[in-house]
Amino acid sequence: MSYINAMLDRELKKGSAELLILSLVEIRPRHGYEISKLIEARSDGVLKFNVASLYPLLYRLEKRGWIQGRWVEKAGQRRRRYYKLTREGRKVLAAQRSGWEEFVAAISRITGAERA
Amino acid sequence: MPEWKSDIRKRLASLKLEPARENEIVEELAGHLEDRYQEMLARGATHEEADLAARTELSDGQLLVRELNRIERQLGAEPFALGARRKNMLGNLWQDLRYGLRLIRKNPGFSAVVVLTLAVGIGANTAIFSVVNAVMLRSLPFQDPDRLVRLNESNPERGWPTFSVSHPNFLDWRERNQTFAAIAATSSASANLGTAGEIEVVRGSAVTVDFLAVLGTSPLMGRNFLPEEDKPGGATRVVMITYGSWQKRFGADPDVVGKTVTINDNAFTIVGVLPESFAWETGSNFELLFPLAPDPQRSRGDHRLTVIGKLKEGVSREQALADMNTIAAQLAEQYPESNKGWLVSGQSFYDWMIPEQIRRSLLLFLGAVGFVLLIACSNVANLMLARATARQKEISIRIALGAGRWRIGSQLLVEALSLAMISGIAGLGVAWLATKALKALNAGDVPRLDEISLDGRVLGFSLLISLLTGVLFGLAPAIHAARTNLNEMLKEGGRSVTGGRVRQRIRSMLVTVEVGLSVALLVSAGLLLRSFWRLQDVNPGFNADHLLTMRINLPRNRYEDNPRAWGFYKRLVEEAGALPGIQAVAVTSGVPMGGGNTATQVQIEGKPAAADGSSSSADWRIVSPGYFRTMGIPLRGREFDERDSEDSQPVTIISEEMARRYWPDEDPIGKPVMLLSLGRKTYTIVGVAGDVRSLGLDSDPAPMVYASTAVAATWNPMNLVIRTGGEPASQVSAVRSTLGSIDPNIPIYDIRTVDELLSNSLGSRRFTMFLLGTFAAVALLLACVGLFGVMAYLVSQRTHEIGVRLALGARPGDVFRLIIGRGMALASAGSALGLAGAWAIGRFLESMLYQIKPTDPITLASAPLVLLAVALLACYVPARRAMKVDPMAALRYE
């Protein structure tokens, strides 16, 4: 793989990972393990996040003020940290989502045309 | 159940997080692993398998630590977060500041160059501003300085705008005016203080009773003079001493009031001690105030007094002058012979004590250091732009990640401001050194220079220009970054081709301006330098080599009449003249360039006063026989000699200028002239002496008349001039002991060589020239460093292009010429700009020049030449480097 491809791959993952996480906490707050399971399950195992890649991302998004974590204790369980989307995060998500959709549409127009 | 926490904690140890935060992370990650473990068990895995699966999650431990490091360390330590929108401005500022400071620490070389450059600029500005502050801005050390006025007599008909005041006129002013709360007269008086063997000459002032009231002060101890002590024939042997004198001479004796001191061989009673804040005259040997005792019987034509007044509340200076001139008109009617044509002029204390010329020089300096700072700023702006190019990628990633352009721009600005503030602090150090140097350099012409200090106003100024500087050099890169077009940047890729055309244009423009500013400064310094050289070549009219001068103050009670005083001087001249190593000795009332002037009205038979009046006056000096020979002044006719005495027909020697003006077509020798200030007698001209520039090398010789000491020896103080064979200073002790053998109670003071006087008379010009020359040199250096930077950068950016050119057959010489040509084009454009600027400055400078026009072609031509020569040097190294570009290497770099 060329240098350009490697870079593209890395940047794509980095950019899209944020989008994934923001989408997953859009409806309701979730904790880290839940997020990682959801990503793996919904992508049929194509995308996997482990502790080392997931949590730094969560912390970064929290630091930027896009999501907010809170310790929640439920009966009979140890406490977990739930992340919810902030107002700011909601705006970013909308922007990233439409950007992503445009991007995917553009890519598929190009790659689709090749195929046709 | 496995223990995850300690494992995770170990991995995070190197991050040195805050304990609370670390606990949180450990708990969360451990929870995640626990969930994974439990899930595996639930799926039927063994404990070992589940444990392995959980630990695999941590396998990329290095990544975890690295990523967390970037996020968790500190607020400002997170490049990704930078530029992100934030909720509070203060947080942004704090973040930017810490980020900026970290960058400064990370690039010590770059930061040092910037700080050094700016510190010089800011320091020079602060130093000059501290002078302006002390001299011009700080209020004068008197109460209500705005209400203080100096009053002069003036005679516009004779071209005397400010003239001292006569005793009776002062008394009439004091009595008749309606507009002054207090009015006082003063005249400076040296005094021989002490008794035989320990006599010292100290400075003092004779003052009238209201003097302290005008200045708004009163004695610290004791009392002011009483009205009856301030009258002729009154008990005038009383004195007030300054605080410094009380400390130094009387050991701060609390009972000093009432004690007596010997002054000019008489016992004076100390009646008061002045407060420490009393600042009429500075200098440690200003010690005494005497009663002036103005005398209504003295001639109204004898102008000697300095008059000061304090306006009544609410009265303007114009109203007061109108009032005074009404009095002058009454006096002119009452005493037409002495007062006709005399008016009253007045100036504020500020205008009087801080002459226009000094204010002008200071403004010139302030402008010049301003230029230096501007040049420093453009240099730094250039450096910042160059670095911004290198940081292009960082900035574009941040913008791509959603950072606001405004945030990026403001972050760069904050970075520039923190650099500027650091430079400002360093600049204060530079300023402190510079003010010390300025004080040491001052030739004594700038008043209040010893009051220079870095006070609140100076610090405020320094802060202001530091901020301004930061904005100036930070703005260009900030605006540029904020305008960065993502598309364009992506097109240029990670490696920009020429650093961006726009940026290169800004850099060239900045350098052009720098060059322009320094050429303007070079021209100004050049004009002053050429004036100075012209002045040094001016013939003063006498031979200043090996000429010693000193002052003598004859006590009036023992030398009250002319025969006694003249007898003393005759003996002194004879005995000192006989000393080995002394070639000639004479006495005069005023040494050329010794300061002060005396003038008289003259009447010439058959020549009525010219309509403009100016032609009927002349300067006068009293000189002893042998004066012209001693001074080396050429003389036609004869010197004064023993034939001249009080009983013989009065004779005078006039100057060439006087002869030219009044006897243009005839020989004046033998002609009569009436000198009003010298006894209103008619003198016969016996000689014509060469012109002497007595007031300074830059003032043209005025008509001069000389009278013999034999008829006017009571003038005080007199100056001894001594022509020596060897080193003049070596004769001082011999002269002193000769004087002691004639009269042990007369000290000599103000011992100087005439060379020194000459050199002092050029002191303020030398000071101005030196300062401006220094600024111009610094400017030249900075501008050329700037040019070098731009050219070196250009070469490094165009290495590829140059490689292609060389590969396509260009010879190294062509490349060399290409680069040099580009540099010279910038320098020439800047020079043209500078000459235009110099033209504008020249008009301001005109009054400081001597026989040089601001458009002096030699100066105007040589300043750009000097600059181009240095610029050539600055371009040489980059051009050589360009020439040596290896085409293969340059292309491979692609």
List the secondary-structure elements of chain A in sequence, H or E.
HEHHEEH
What's the total count of β strands of chain B?
Answer: 23
Helix content of chain B: 40-55%
SS-derived structural category of chain B: alpha+beta
**What's the shape of chain B?**
elongated
Major sheet details of chain A: 3 strands, antiparallel
Oligomer: heterodimer
Count of alpha and pi helical runs of chain A:
4
The average pLDDT of chain B is 85
Mean pLDDT of chain A: 81
User: How many β-strand runs of chain A?
Assistant: 3
Share of helix among residues of chain A? Answer: 55-70%
β-strand percent of chain B reads 15-25%
- Rg of chain B, please? 39 Å
- Continuous helix count of chain B: 28
The biggest sheet of chain B, with number of strands, parallel, antiparallel or mixed sense and barrel status, is:
12 strands, mixed
Which class do the helix and strand fractions of chain A yield? alpha+beta
- Runs of chain B in which pLDDT lies below 50 for 5 or more consecutive residues are 74-87, 493-498, 611-615
Task: Tell me about this structure.
- The complex is a heterodimer of chains A (116) and B (894).
- Helices cover 65% and strands 12% of the residues of chain A.
- Chain A is built from four helices and three strands, in the order H-E-H-H-E-E-H.
- Chain A has a three-stranded antiparallel sheet.
- The longest helix of chain A is centred in the C-terminal third of the chain and has 29 residues, at 87-115.
- The mean pLDDT of chain A is 81.
- Chain B is an alpha+beta fold and 894 residues long.
- In chain B, the strands form three sheets. In chain B, strands 1, 2, 3, 4, 5, 6, 7, 8, 9, 10, 11 and 12 form a twelve-stranded mixed sheet that branches. In chain B, strands 15-16-21-18-20-19 form a six-stranded mixed barrel.
- Chain B is elongated and about 140 Å long.
- In chain B, 42% of the residues are buried.
